[in-house]
Amino acid sequence: MTKQQSEESSKLPISTNLPDNLKRIEDTFIDCTDLTILPWSYGPELEQTAFSVYFDTLVQTKKVNYMKESLQDLVTHEIGPATTVTPEDVMHFFTKNGVSAHSARVIDDFGLAVQQILDGNLVIFFNQWNKALSYNALGLAQRAITEPITEPVVQGPHLSTIEDLSSNIGLIRSLLKSPRLKFEFLTAGEESQRTISFGYLDGAVNPETLIEFKRRISDIDKEEILETSYLEEWIGESAYSPFPQVRYTERPDTAVAALLDGKIIALVSGTPTILICPGLFFEFFSTSEDYYHRWFFSSLIRLLRVGAFFMALMLPSTYIALTTFHSELIPTVLLLAILDTREGIPFPALVEAFIMEFFFELLREAGIRLPRPIGSAVSIVGALVIGQAAIQAKIASPVMVIVVALTGIASFSLPQYSMAISIRILRFPLMVLAATFGGLGVMIGFLLSLLHLTCMRSLGQPYLAMMAPLEINQLRDVFILIPKKILLHSPRNRHKHKKTGERKTTS
To answer: What is the chain's Cα-based Rg?
Structure first.
C-alpha cells in the first residue's frame, strides 16, 4: 500500500454497498498476495452477505474460523428469530450492544479499518451497513521471557523484556503496583506505524522534565522509529557529544527503580530495549544488582568500576606520556625493564599503541558479530595468537600488550555499553595529546572532557548532578552505597513534587 493510497483511504467513510468496500480493499492492498478476503453469508436462507479481511501471515487461522462461526451463530440466534434477520437487525444489535469479544470494536472509518488489518486484526464488512467489526486475531510467534542477555546478574530477578510492548508494560506494572504509574502512547512512522509508549511515576517525576520530554517527542509522529535507540536523537541535548545522555536496559526491575527515582522510561513495539531518561553521568556506574548485595560489597564494586573508567580512558595515554616525555618519573628498575622490552621496536609508542588498539577493537567487533558458540573462542584465541606474534615479530612490546589488554578489560567492566563506547572514542585523542605534549597534553584532554561534562545537561538536568552542583544528601548513592536500612528510610526520589509542581523538602 502506497502513502497516497493510505491518505486517500483514511478520508473515506465505510460504504453501505458491500461491493464498493470490497473494491476499495482490493485497490488499497493491490499485489498483497498474503491478504485473504473471505466471503460468507448469514440469515435464515443465507441470503445476506458479508466478507472478512485479514493477512494470513499475521493472524491465527483458528481465531479466524472461531470468530466466523461465533458471529454466524450470534447473527442467527441472538439478533433475532431465524426468519427475521436483516442487515438492519445486525446494525441495530451491534450499535446498541457493542462487541462483547475481547479486543473487538465497531469502526466507521475506512482508513481505520485498513490500519486494523495492518495491525493483524480480522475486519468484517456487512452489506447495507456503513460500519465494520474488528477483532484481535494477531498470531505472531513471540520470544519467551528469559534471562537478560546484556545485563546478567548473579543475585536478583532473572526476567527480561521481549519484543511485545504489552508484555513489557505488564511486567513493569506487575512490579510497580501503583495507580500513580502512568503510560502514554503515540504512533510514529507513516509506513512502519510503530507504537511508542512512555511511562512515569506521577508525583516522583519532575514536572518540568516531563514537559520538556513531551515537547521533544511531539514531532516524532512522522519519523520511522524502528528501535528504542532512535529516540535518543530527539531526547538528547548534545547530538555531537560522545557521552550517552540516556540509559538502556532489558531488566524490568531496573526500569521500576528508575521510575521510583523520578525517571521517564520509553518503549517501542518490536524491540525489548527500555530507554531511561534523563541519564546522568554517575548513574552509568550502578546496576540493579548493587542493591541486592550488602552495602559494603556493593560500594567496593562501584569504586572498582570508577577506577576501571579512569583506567580505560587514560592508561594508554599515561603510558605514552611517561615513556616518551617523563621517563624520570618511572622507577629505575621498571624503566630498565620497559627499555629492555622496547629494544628493537621500530615504532614510537604512539604508533605501537594505535596498532595494538586497532587489532584489539577489531577482535572485539569480530567476537560480537560471529555466531555465539565460536565468537568468544575466536576472540580469546585471536588475542593470544596476535599478541604473541606481535611480540615475537618486534612490532609491539610486552608492556604495550599488557597496557592494551588491561584497558580492554577495564572497559568491559562498565555496566552500560554506551559508556564503554564513549571511552573507546575518547581514548585515541588523549593518546595523540600525550604523544604531542606529554603529561600536559593528558591533563589538557582530561580538563577539556571535564569541562564538557560540566556544561552538559540531560533533559534540562545537569549531567554531573549530585557532584556539580554538589548535593550532599544525594552522595549516599553515588560512589559509596550506604546501608539499605538508612537508604530506604530516606527519600529515594530525587524529585518529590506536589501536584502544583512545588518541590517538597527532603530530609
So the answer is: 30
Q: Which helix (H) or strand (E) holds 39?
A: strand 35-42
* 120 contacts 140 by C-beta, under 8 angstroms: yes
**Distance separating alpha carbons of residues 348 and 342, to the nearest angstrom:** 10
pLDDT in tens, 86-136: 666 666 666 555 455 556 788 888 988 998 898 888 898 988 888 888 888
Q: Which three cell numbers stand for residue 107?
A: 469502526
Output phi, psi for 143, to 5 deg. Answer: -70, 140
- Beta-ladder partners of 35: 55
Range 477-483 contact pairs with CB under 8 angstroms and sequence separation of 24 or more? 477/286, 478/282, 479/282, 479/299, 479/302, 479/303, 479/306, 480/299, 480/302, 480/303, 481/290, 481/291, 481/295, 481/298, 481/299, 481/302, 482/295, 483/295
Say how many C-beta atoms besides its own lie within 10 A of residue 323's C-beta: 22
> How many CB atoms neighbour CB 78 within 10 A?
10
Alpha carbon of residue 292 to chain centroid: 24
DSSP 440-501: HHHHHHHHHHHHHHHH-EETTEETTTBBTTB-GGGTTBTTSBPPHHHHTTS---S--B-TTS
- The C-alpha angle with vertex 415 and arms to 246 and 144, in degrees rounded to 5, equals 85
- Measured in residues, the chain has a length of 507
Which ranges in 147-251 belong to alpha helices (H)?
165-175, 207-216, 232-235
pLDDT per residue over 225-246, tens digit each? 888 988 988 888 887 889 999 9
Torsion sign across C-alpha atoms 139, 119, 225, 288: negative
